[in-house]
Amino acid sequence: MTANDRVRLSVRVQPKASRNALCIGADGRIRVALTAPPVEGEANKALVAFLAGCLDVAKRDVVLLRGTASREKVVEVKGLTKAEMEARLKSGLSRCCARTPDG
Fold this sequence. Notes:
The protein has one domain (6-95): YggU-like (Conserved Hypothetical Protein Mth637, Chain: A, 2-Layer Sandwich), CATH 3.30.1200.10. It is 27% helix and 28% strand. The protein has helices at 42-55, 82-95; strands at residues 6-14, 21-24, 30-33, 62-66, 72-78. It has a five-stranded mixed β-sheet with strand order 2-3-1-5-4. The longest helix is centred in the middle third of the chain and has 14 residues, at 42-55.
């Protein structure tokens, strides 16, 4: 791993959920449910913090690139390769209150 390793994720966010949760659908789509409301950037801040926790990286290494006012977001994670990110997401499913694709 080098300091230049970066990976981008497309994420669908559901704000004002009953709990924070990460779900990877059968199609490989990443969905994140957040308790934070979509007001004044609160859901965006919560998304960055939640993904940082799931991926075991610092919040400063998770950057929202696109979708600040949309449910469809593109996030860049610094310091991880694609393979490392995928492994951490899969192992983080249990740590992040994950739901299976069935719900």
